[in-house]
């Protein structure tokens, strides 16, 4: 038994010097210390077959050998751990001084998204909630709920892409069975009123679609940012105040806004809002059609018919609404003189932001 112990010790020391990684360490552990078949474990088990004195003598020796091997094993385990950690660190090392790899250009936000995010932050800081609405909208919400009945000439103000559906659909609202690519974000007025009631402060950013002969300031697919407030004692000066905050936030304190009466069936009174043309500083150019002003929004006091359609008590509540052309805001902010470049996907343009 003494010889056996000597041999195990010798084999163990030979084997341990060969161990280079965690897998080999595990194999070593299995070979010598495994509970069922470990070489050292077997010796320990055999002790019980020895007579009293011999058991004492070899028991002591076996325990000393066991302790010694376990100590060496623990040291080796620590060594392997440290060296593998070093390997990991080496593999995962990041050279922060390395120049950018060619062809690995990262994307970034589109200027429209930058301005939209900025305005959402501004409005939520003033207690507005930001809502999304459907781009494929029912005629009911896009027109009828906004005081534009079927066959009314006001529909011509915003021609779009009509989609014919089979049969009616309740979700389109009020027995609607025809759908349009929404022409503006205003359909969310009635939707929000019906869902949340009054009082209400909402902004709705989103894409809208028009059948448009495009030019430097007109696109067929644009983004708008709708906003409306419904509460008690709301009047036109509240609307002017909010518009002023937005304009100054985007363009600084010197910006001038011009409001002029404009007919929108869903507001009364209605206005369009213009700012000094950024390109010609008001002198007149192709972007502002020689007028010196650029139209950036429509606005007004919400028409009682729209409030009624939204289920609002018009004796108690009034409201104002506005709709910014987000693309125009972006053009003004960054001095872009051609709206069609915004959605062109031209990287020479996009890389500038
Ligand atoms: C509307 O769309 C109304 N829904 C706005 C509104 C909301 C009025 C609430 C009253 C109350 P309008 O068609 O004027 O209005 O469009 C609003 C803004 O969107 C315009 O001032 C303009 O900045 C932008 N816009 C409209 N059509 C285009 C287009 N084809 N290309 C670029 N910008 C456009």
UniProtKB/TrEMBL annotation:
GO terms for molecular function: ATP binding; magnesium ion binding; phenylalanine-tRNA ligase activity; tRNA binding. It comes from the Bacteria. GO terms for cellular component: cytoplasm. Its cofactor is Mg(2+). The keyword Transmembrane helix does not apply. It catalyses: tRNA(Phe) + L-phenylalanine + ATP = L-phenylalanyl-tRNA(Phe) + AMP + diphosphate + H(+). Its EC number is 6.1.1.20. Mg(2+) binds at residue 268. This is Phenylalanine--tRNA ligase alpha subunit. It comes from Candidatus Magasanikbacteria bacterium RIFCSPLOWO2_12_FULL_43_12. The gene is pheS.
């Amino acid at each position: 038994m003494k010889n056996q112990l000597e041999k195990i010790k010798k084999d163990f020391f030979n084997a341990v010097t060969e161990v280079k990684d965690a897998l080999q360490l595990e194999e070593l552990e299995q070979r010598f210390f495994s509970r069922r078949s470990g070489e050292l474990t077997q010796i320990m088990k055999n002790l019980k077959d020895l007579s009293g004195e011999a058991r004492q003598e070899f028991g002591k020796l076996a325990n000393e050998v066991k302790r010694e091997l376990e100590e060496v094993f623990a040291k080796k385990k620590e060594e392997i751990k440290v060296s593998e950690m070093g390997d990991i660190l080496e593999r995962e090392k990041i050279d922060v001084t390395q120049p950018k790899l060619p062809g690995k250009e990262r994307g970034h936000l589109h200027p429209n998204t930058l301005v939209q995010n900025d305005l959402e932050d501004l409005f939520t800081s003033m207690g507005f909630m930001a809502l999304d609405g459907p781009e494929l909208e029912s005629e009911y919400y896009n027109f009828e709920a906004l005081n534009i009945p079927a066959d009314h000439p006001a529909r011509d103000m915003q021609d779009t892409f009509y989609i014919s559906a089979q049969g009616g659909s309740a979700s389109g609202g009020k027995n609607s069975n025809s759908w349009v690519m929404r022409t503006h974000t205003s359909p969310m007025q009635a939707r929000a009123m019906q869902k949340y009631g009054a009082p209400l402060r909402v902004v709705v950013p989103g894409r809208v679609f028009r059948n448009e002969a495009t030019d430097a300031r007109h696109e067929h697919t644009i983004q708008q940012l709708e906003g409306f407030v419904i509460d008690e004692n709301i009047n036109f000066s509240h609307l002017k105040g909010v518009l002023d905050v937005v304009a100054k936030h985007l363009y600084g304190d010197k910006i001038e806004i011009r409001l002029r009466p404009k007919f929108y069936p869903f507001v009364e009174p209605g206005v369009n809002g213009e700012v000094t043309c950024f390109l010609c500083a008001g002198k007149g150019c192709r972007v502002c059609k020689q007028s010196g002003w650029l139209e950036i929004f429509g606005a007004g006091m919400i028409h009682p018919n729209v409030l009624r359609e939204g289920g609002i008590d018009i004796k108690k509540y009034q409201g104002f609404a506005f709709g910014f052309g987000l693309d125009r805001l972006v053009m003004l902010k960054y001095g872009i003189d051609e709206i069609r470049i915004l959605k062109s996907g031209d990287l020479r343009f996009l890389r500038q932001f």
